[in-house]
Amino acid sequence: MNLTSVKQKDDVMERHVEDSLAIVEPVRNCYRPNSGSSFENLNVIDVGSGAGLPGLVLAIAFPGWKLTVVESMNKRCAFLKHAASLVGLQNVHIVQDRAENAGHKVELREGFDVAVARAVADMRILAEYCLPLVRVGGLFVAAKGHDPQEEVLQAERAVGLMGGSIMQTCLVESRSKYGQRTAVVCRKDGPTPRKYPRPPGTPSKLPL
């Protein structure tokens, strides 16, 4: 279905699957459970999942987690549904919608322990996509490249407007193109103002 440029199985395992799993340790180290959740039974949302990276990979690796996968393109959603059915995943819920719309749905808004995003957008944009979906006290984790420091600094205001704060940037080992990658971990400190996320297309055109 031409969902990724990587075609060979070994390359997919190393550059996509292992890279998706690289965010697990930062989540394990930073997550603080509340009365209804622990690391073993997290409620996780993957925003802009594409070919199921990292959402489907996490669902396979952690069957105790509940994974909601948000993807706007019909072709990709069809693949995600097929892949989840083929593997027999019972812990995946696929939502076809834009992140800006998902953030205002009552059943999704501020309902997740952790939001993750990989290879989707700039941190300023991702903050507006993801943090409205995270419960207060939860985490937003963005998988980023080998040198995201300037991008992270520029995103501090956007993260703050969404009710969050940047906790840390964790170095992770990956067999992706550059080898060394990072996971940017943000904590949700307070509720996101109702006006966010802004209408579809606005976050990417006018980043905060």
TrEMBL record:
This is Ribosomal RNA small subunit methyltransferase G. Keywords: Cytoplasm, Methyltransferase, rRNA processing, S-adenosyl-L-methionine, Transferase. Pfam families: GidB. Transmembrane segments: none annotated. InterPro entries: rRNA_ssu_MeTfrase_G (IPR003682), SAM-dependent_MTases_sf (IPR029063). One of its GO terms (cellular component) is cytosol. GO terms for molecular function: rRNA (guanine-N7-)-methyltransferase activity. The keyword Iron-sulfur does not apply. Residues 187-208 are annotated as: Disordered.
